[in-house]
Design goal:
mainly alpha; elongated
Length: 237
Protein backbone atom coordinates (compact mmCIF):
# COMPACT_ATOMS: atom_id res chain seq x y z
CA UNK A 1 0.00 0.00 0.00
CA UNK A 2 1.41 3.28 -1.06
CA UNK A 3 1.12 6.68 0.61
CA UNK A 4 -1.57 7.89 -1.76
CA UNK A 5 -3.93 5.03 -0.92
CA UNK A 6 -3.35 5.51 2.80
CA UNK A 7 -4.23 9.20 2.49
CA UNK A 8 -7.49 8.38 0.72
CA UNK A 9 -8.45 5.94 3.51
CA UNK A 10 -7.79 8.57 6.13
CA UNK A 11 -10.00 11.06 4.33
CA UNK A 12 -12.84 8.57 4.01
CA UNK A 13 -12.50 7.68 7.68
CA UNK A 14 -13.02 11.31 8.49
CA UNK A 15 -16.25 11.14 6.49
CA UNK A 16 -17.49 8.20 8.54
CA UNK A 17 -16.77 9.96 11.80
CA UNK A 18 -18.53 13.17 10.71
CA UNK A 19 -22.15 13.05 12.09
CA UNK A 20 -23.30 15.84 9.84
CA UNK A 21 -23.02 13.70 6.69
CA UNK A 22 -26.27 12.07 5.37
CA UNK A 23 -26.90 8.32 5.14
CA UNK A 24 -26.54 8.39 1.42
CA UNK A 25 -23.19 9.86 1.75
CA UNK A 26 -22.28 7.15 4.22
CA UNK A 27 -23.48 4.41 1.85
CA UNK A 28 -21.56 5.90 -0.97
CA UNK A 29 -18.60 6.18 1.29
CA UNK A 30 -18.96 2.53 2.27
CA UNK A 31 -19.15 1.51 -1.35
CA UNK A 32 -16.13 3.59 -2.14
CA UNK A 33 -14.38 2.14 0.90
CA UNK A 34 -15.29 -1.38 -0.25
CA UNK A 35 -13.96 -0.62 -3.70
CA UNK A 36 -10.88 0.89 -2.18
CA UNK A 37 -10.36 -2.20 -0.01
CA UNK A 38 -10.74 -4.46 -3.05
CA UNK A 39 -8.16 -2.56 -5.07
CA UNK A 40 -5.25 -3.51 -2.88
CA UNK A 41 -6.19 -7.21 -3.36
CA UNK A 42 -6.04 -6.79 -7.11
CA UNK A 43 -2.84 -4.85 -6.79
CA UNK A 44 -1.46 -7.58 -4.53
CA UNK A 45 -2.19 -10.26 -7.10
CA UNK A 46 -0.63 -8.11 -9.73
CA UNK A 47 2.34 -7.63 -7.52
CA UNK A 48 2.55 -11.40 -6.94
CA UNK A 49 2.34 -11.97 -10.66
CA UNK A 50 4.98 -9.35 -11.21
CA UNK A 51 7.12 -11.02 -8.56
CA UNK A 52 6.69 -14.40 -10.26
CA UNK A 53 7.62 -12.88 -13.60
CA UNK A 54 10.53 -11.15 -12.01
CA UNK A 55 11.69 -14.40 -10.42
CA UNK A 56 11.39 -16.15 -13.76
CA UNK A 57 13.24 -13.36 -15.45
CA UNK A 58 15.84 -13.45 -12.68
CA UNK A 59 16.27 -17.20 -13.21
CA UNK A 60 16.59 -16.66 -16.93
CA UNK A 61 19.08 -13.87 -16.34
CA UNK A 62 20.94 -16.08 -13.89
CA UNK A 63 21.15 -18.90 -16.45
CA UNK A 64 22.21 -16.42 -19.07
CA UNK A 65 24.85 -15.03 -16.75
CA UNK A 66 26.06 -18.55 -15.93
CA UNK A 67 26.27 -19.40 -19.61
CA UNK A 68 27.95 -16.07 -20.19
CA UNK A 69 30.41 -16.81 -17.40
CA UNK A 70 31.12 -20.29 -18.74
CA UNK A 71 31.37 -19.09 -22.31
CA UNK A 72 34.65 -17.18 -21.89
CA UNK A 73 36.39 -20.44 -20.96
CA UNK A 74 35.47 -21.91 -24.34
CA UNK A 75 36.32 -18.64 -25.96
CA UNK A 76 39.64 -18.68 -24.18
CA UNK A 77 40.29 -22.19 -25.42
CA UNK A 78 39.28 -21.14 -28.91
CA UNK A 79 41.42 -18.05 -28.58
CA UNK A 80 44.35 -20.19 -27.43
CA UNK A 81 43.79 -22.57 -30.33
CA UNK A 82 43.55 -19.68 -32.76
CA UNK A 83 46.63 -18.10 -31.23
CA UNK A 84 48.59 -21.33 -31.61
CA UNK A 85 47.43 -21.62 -35.21
CA UNK A 86 48.41 -18.05 -35.92
CA UNK A 87 51.76 -18.55 -34.25
CA UNK A 88 52.38 -21.73 -36.26
CA UNK A 89 51.34 -19.93 -39.44
CA UNK A 90 53.65 -17.00 -38.65
CA UNK A 91 56.51 -19.42 -37.94
CA UNK A 92 55.88 -21.22 -41.23
CA UNK A 93 55.84 -17.94 -43.14
CA UNK A 94 58.97 -16.81 -41.32
CA UNK A 95 60.76 -20.04 -42.26
CA UNK A 96 59.66 -19.67 -45.88
CA UNK A 97 60.83 -16.06 -46.00
CA UNK A 98 64.13 -16.99 -44.35
CA UNK A 99 64.66 -19.83 -46.83
CA UNK A 100 63.82 -17.54 -49.71
CA UNK A 101 66.30 -14.94 -48.44
CA UNK A 102 69.03 -17.61 -48.23
CA UNK A 103 68.27 -18.74 -51.79
CA UNK A 104 68.30 -15.16 -53.05
CA UNK A 105 71.66 -14.51 -51.36
CA UNK A 106 73.10 -17.72 -52.81
CA UNK A 107 71.89 -16.85 -56.31
CA UNK A 108 73.22 -13.32 -55.90
CA UNK A 109 76.67 -14.59 -54.89
CA UNK A 110 76.70 -17.11 -57.75
CA UNK A 111 75.64 -14.49 -60.26
CA UNK A 112 78.17 -12.04 -58.85
CA UNK A 113 80.98 -14.62 -59.06
CA UNK A 114 79.89 -15.56 -62.56
CA UNK A 115 79.88 -11.93 -63.64
CA UNK A 116 83.32 -11.36 -62.12
CA UNK A 117 84.67 -14.47 -63.88
CA UNK A 118 83.13 -13.41 -67.17
CA UNK A 119 84.53 -9.92 -66.74
CA UNK A 120 88.04 -11.27 -66.06
CA UNK A 121 87.82 -13.61 -69.06
CA UNK A 122 86.57 -10.80 -71.27
CA UNK A 123 89.38 -8.52 -70.10
CA UNK A 124 91.95 -11.24 -70.81
CA UNK A 125 90.45 -11.89 -74.23
CA UNK A 126 90.42 -8.19 -74.98
CA UNK A 127 94.02 -7.91 -73.84
CA UNK A 128 95.09 -10.86 -76.01
CA UNK A 129 93.17 -9.52 -78.97
CA UNK A 130 94.59 -6.07 -78.42
CA UNK A 131 98.15 -7.47 -78.23
CA UNK A 132 97.61 -9.51 -81.37
CA UNK A 133 96.10 -6.52 -83.11
CA UNK A 134 98.99 -4.30 -82.06
CA UNK A 135 101.49 -6.88 -83.30
CA UNK A 136 99.63 -7.24 -86.57
CA UNK A 137 99.37 -3.48 -86.96
CA UNK A 138 103.07 -2.98 -86.30
CA UNK A 139 104.00 -5.64 -88.88
CA UNK A 140 101.53 -4.19 -91.34
CA UNK A 141 102.90 -0.68 -90.88
CA UNK A 142 106.44 -1.99 -91.19
CA UNK A 143 105.86 -3.70 -94.52
CA UNK A 144 103.64 -0.92 -95.73
CA UNK A 145 106.45 1.56 -95.17
CA UNK A 146 108.84 -0.73 -97.04
CA UNK A 147 106.36 -1.03 -99.88
CA UNK A 148 106.21 2.72 -100.15
CA UNK A 149 110.02 2.80 -100.30
CA UNK A 150 110.07 0.52 -103.36
CA UNK A 151 110.73 2.32 -106.62
CA UNK A 152 108.25 2.20 -109.43
CA UNK A 153 108.55 -0.16 -112.35
CA UNK A 154 111.40 0.53 -114.72
CA UNK A 155 115.20 0.54 -114.75
CA UNK A 156 115.37 1.71 -111.16
CA UNK A 157 113.13 -1.11 -110.00
CA UNK A 158 115.32 -3.76 -111.67
CA UNK A 159 118.50 -2.33 -110.18
CA UNK A 160 116.89 -2.23 -106.77
CA UNK A 161 115.90 -5.92 -107.04
CA UNK A 162 119.46 -6.93 -108.07
CA UNK A 163 120.87 -5.07 -105.08
CA UNK A 164 118.49 -6.93 -102.75
CA UNK A 165 119.56 -10.26 -104.27
CA UNK A 166 123.24 -9.40 -103.80
CA UNK A 167 122.61 -8.48 -100.17
CA UNK A 168 120.84 -11.78 -99.61
CA UNK A 169 123.73 -13.74 -101.12
CA UNK A 170 126.28 -11.94 -98.98
CA UNK A 171 124.18 -12.54 -95.89
CA UNK A 172 123.79 -16.23 -96.73
CA UNK A 173 127.54 -16.63 -97.20
CA UNK A 174 128.34 -14.88 -93.94
CA UNK A 175 125.89 -17.12 -92.08
CA UNK A 176 127.51 -20.26 -93.48
CA UNK A 177 130.98 -19.09 -92.49
CA UNK A 178 129.90 -18.14 -88.99
CA UNK A 179 128.13 -21.48 -88.57
CA UNK A 180 131.36 -23.37 -89.20
CA UNK A 181 133.07 -21.52 -86.37
CA UNK A 182 130.26 -21.57 -83.83
CA UNK A 183 128.73 -24.62 -82.15
CA UNK A 184 125.25 -25.71 -83.01
CA UNK A 185 122.53 -24.18 -80.91
CA UNK A 186 119.45 -25.99 -79.69
CA UNK A 187 116.39 -25.66 -81.80
CA UNK A 188 114.27 -24.49 -78.87
CA UNK A 189 116.64 -21.63 -78.23
CA UNK A 190 116.40 -20.29 -81.75
CA UNK A 191 114.66 -16.98 -82.23
CA UNK A 192 112.04 -16.37 -84.88
CA UNK A 193 114.22 -13.68 -86.44
CA UNK A 194 117.31 -15.87 -86.31
CA UNK A 195 119.26 -16.48 -89.51
CA UNK A 196 120.57 -19.89 -88.50
CA UNK A 197 118.16 -21.56 -90.92
CA UNK A 198 120.25 -20.18 -93.75
CA UNK A 199 123.10 -22.52 -92.84
CA UNK A 200 121.04 -25.64 -93.38
CA UNK A 201 121.75 -27.66 -96.53
CA UNK A 202 118.97 -28.57 -98.84
CA UNK A 203 119.19 -32.26 -99.74
CA UNK A 204 116.91 -34.19 -102.01
CA UNK A 205 116.14 -37.90 -101.94
CA UNK A 206 118.54 -40.10 -103.94
CA UNK A 207 116.63 -42.26 -106.41
CA UNK A 208 119.64 -44.55 -107.18
CA UNK A 209 118.94 -48.01 -105.66
CA UNK A 210 121.40 -49.40 -103.11
CA UNK A 211 122.69 -52.86 -104.16
CA UNK A 212 122.79 -55.45 -101.38
CA UNK A 213 125.74 -57.84 -101.13
CA UNK A 214 125.09 -61.43 -102.11
CA UNK A 215 126.57 -63.99 -99.71
CA UNK A 216 127.14 -66.47 -102.56
CA UNK A 217 129.29 -64.09 -104.58
CA UNK A 218 132.45 -63.13 -102.77
CA UNK A 219 134.96 -60.60 -104.05
CA UNK A 220 138.00 -58.88 -102.71
CA UNK A 221 135.96 -56.50 -100.59
CA UNK A 222 134.37 -59.39 -98.72
CA UNK A 223 135.48 -59.72 -95.13
CA UNK A 224 134.52 -62.83 -93.20
CA UNK A 225 133.65 -62.31 -89.59
CA UNK A 226 133.59 -65.24 -87.18
CA UNK A 227 134.18 -66.03 -83.54
CA UNK A 228 137.48 -67.88 -83.02
CA UNK A 229 136.28 -69.22 -79.68
CA UNK A 230 133.52 -71.22 -81.29
CA UNK A 231 134.21 -75.02 -81.47
CA UNK A 232 132.73 -75.20 -84.97
CA UNK A 233 135.07 -72.51 -86.22
CA UNK A 234 138.01 -74.29 -84.57
CA UNK A 235 137.22 -77.52 -86.47
CA UNK A 236 136.98 -75.58 -89.73
CA UNK A 237 140.46 -74.28 -89.22
Amino acid sequence: MNSKTYQELEERKMYFDDPKLSSKTIAEAENENRETNEEPEVNLEDQLENIRKKLKSDKADTKKKISTINQPDNDDEDDDFDFNDRRAERKRKYDEIKKEIVNVKREYQQNKLKKVTETVVEEKDEKVHSEMFEEYKSEYDKYKSKTKALPRKGAGREEFTLNLLAKFKNKLQSVKESNLEETETEENAEDVDSTSWMSHELRFNNDVPTLAKDANTKDDDWFEIYDPRSALNKRRR
